[in-house]
Amino acid sequence: GCEEGGRAAAFVARQWPPPLDHPLEFTARDISLRDALDRLSAAARLRISYSAELLPLERRVCVSRQARTVGDVLAELLRETSVEPVVAGEDHVVLAPRRGDRISAEPQPSEFSRVVPLDRVVVTGSASGGPQRALPFVLDVVSAEQMERQGTAPLSRFLSTGASGPWGWEQSPSSVIARFGSIRGASSFGVSAPKVFIDGIEVANPLLVTQIAPEAVERIEVIRGPQGAALYGTDAISGVVNIVTRHEGTDSGAPPFRIRASVGRAESDFASNGALAQELAVALRTGTSVRSAGLDVGIGGMGDFLPDGGSRYVLASGSARQVGARSIATGILRFYDAHAGASVNPLLAEALGPKGDSLLAASAPRAQGMRQYTVGGTVRVAPDDRWTHTLVAGIDGNRLSGVADERTPIPFPAEGAWRGSGGGANRGTLRLSSVAQLRAGDGTEVTLTLAAEHSTLRESVDAPEAAPLPDQTDPVRSPAIVSWTHSTGVVAQATAALRDRLHLTGGVRIERNDGLAENRYAALPVLGAVWLTDVGGASLKVRAAYGSGTRPPRTPSRNQAWGGAPRLYRGMELAPERQSGLEGGFDLAIGSTFLLQVTGYDQLASGLIQRVALAAVTDSTGERRMTPYALQSVGQISNRGWEMQGTAHLGRLSLEGAAAGVTSRVRTLAAGYEGDLRAGDRMLEVPAVTLSGTAAWTERRW
User: Fold this and answer.
1) What is the DSSP letter of 3?
2) S-S: 241 plus which of 194, 292, 346, 376, CB 3.0-4.6 Å?
3) pLDDT computed for residue 109 by the predictor
């Protein structure tokens, strides 16, 4: 790792055999070992092969200017590992276990395969990647190994089991929209969700990231709370999730072909023959650490566990990467198509009495459909060991049809024959960031981040059907409601590290967003401090951070989940939702064997928007005709809680556990609020305590 303000430890030059004796000017600071090896391979024009199980690929490394040959560079990169470079050909070097080390024929759990999170290099929380140890707030990393245990699954499930704090309600197969119950308490009504990115490209509607193929993902990085808004902008009020895709070649030990299949059966009192559930995933990889490409395809679904309640999906993603001596370029393409049947709760007919069958038949939903795509790329350039420039460009879009509104009473025909909403959203993202690492003579290092970002969102929501005219039989359909939202933000942030012990972070993002009320501007600050020290054989990190975030009142997640939302906005000027607060805690790591993270937080959310049911409208005979709804600001919500998670690696046994508790209550009510909440009420759908645990035993081939 980088020691004492980034200076690499001294080393002894050696006489290397060809091609390790070739002269090479190569410097790197605070990058991952994986990126350093890839860039070295491109700069020296060598094939470098290694086993990913033998190296801490996510650990941050440095290469000093003392290194003069390819062998010197490799020696410095590998000085804290158990491998060494071995020449295997004129242009081929293999990183093999050092001579004299005992090698068992039976694979052993690798010490280095479990990188201490304090040393991990992450791309979320910094503009172009940096050490996790310097971040003043908690950042969780859900690894591919954790995801592979669950197979293809919704993003909310990975976050619920792999991070302490976020919680997603498990959805029926007949639903195409995810539901997050809590991310450190309530940050919205019914549509709480983090701001989701795929390789830095913002997703238009985070509630539609309902299937993640673990074969295509390297890791998921999660920031909880509003502390990430200073870098990632408006709508990051709940937190930030960045899905980092795989880009490795096959020369680093990755298999060129993988296939995964599963089959199961679901029984139900309402399906006489049961329902078959199945999924098939195929992953292809090709290339080297310098130039690589991959393709992942998955299909799956479930039969009718309820009448007309089956579902099916197709998921495909492709990636490519080109590594140069001073640059890395990646590209991604993702497509997801899902369909779910139009099932009706079979218990409702009996509950509604004699007219139940006719009422449900008249208001039966339509089949649901959803398509989502993401396309874009990233170019990262390091012209020297001081500056790193990153350009991200991409588009994410979706199209929905027949999405049922699950947050209303039984949908009687008189309610407007609303059988499911439709629409779509497309968002383009363009971000340029530059990061400079500046040294001072007293052991102080300053990391300066400058960034500019622009995004354009086009959203359309299908209008509801009206009753047919007297001389017509078909319902009347109004044109779709189309809106455009432009957002531009600039970021300035600095982190000062004093002898790699004390890290101070401060920054602000100024953003202009068309969706914000009145002046359309928002200032999103972040402040934090980290203290690092050694306690015996353990590393202790004490951290504290303040952050503030805001969310426009109109977002794709709200409009598409609440199908009639555009009608409810008319004549209303709603203020943005806001959340700000403090978090603090510590991380305790004992080598790569044990890690404990403890965090407490106190956040205040204001202006949260709720859809409030008003008095029912009746006709001249007094019969109920419809229930009108209005969007209203509730007031202030207090979110306080604690989070704890730990991992232990004891030989072949691995243990992971997490616990979180939150108290989310209404503090004050806004003027004019007509809903049923009162000051002191606990927020619904926010679990008070969540617990999770995993135990794994590794054997030969098992």
Assistant:
1) B
2) 194
3) 43
